[in-house]
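2024-03-11 09:14:02 DEBUG pipeline.ingest accepted 1 chain
2024-03-11 09:14:02 DEBUG pipeline.ingest length=171
2024-03-11 09:14:03 DEBUG pipeline.predict start
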Amino acid sequence: DLFNRGRIDAAEKQARTASAWDANSPDIHETVGLILNAAGKPAEAAAELWRAARLRPTDATLAFNAALAFAGAGKIPDAELALRETLTRSPRHDRAWYNLGLLLVQTNRTTEGLRALSEAETIAPKIADYPYARATVLWQQGDRAGAKAAAEQALRLDPNHAGAGQLARQR
């Protein structure tokens, strides 16, 4: 209630108290994590979301949310760990494959990153962001033809995709 009324600091205090009372509740840790994220504390939020994910070992969404929070906090190794855990829990989690692909490219593991992006495309072939991401990576690697083909694929899925449109028009 406090959080919904915009009293984030008070909500954080109450949620932390609840967490201390019931340290084994994944729901409470998730709530604390969401509040901390709203309070602009991404590293603390990630830690709470990861605790929640560990307490509910079959929940891929909790692991994925922890991964996003770790990435937002700049904790790239932890984000990768949480993304891989998401995929262990839910191998067809296309958004986790996509985010893992971007993370791998960001950490100079381009070949592995492209494989992860391709996996996201295979699982969810109607999402234009996936071939577009592949197009940007191929462009950066100097594969102009491959990049344009991937951008055109993204445009077939979403003719209004601005990034894909710009990349397809590049020379």
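2024-03-11 09:14:41 DEBUG pipeline.report Residues 8-21 form the longest helix (14 residues).
2024-03-11 09:14:41 DEBUG pipeline.predict end
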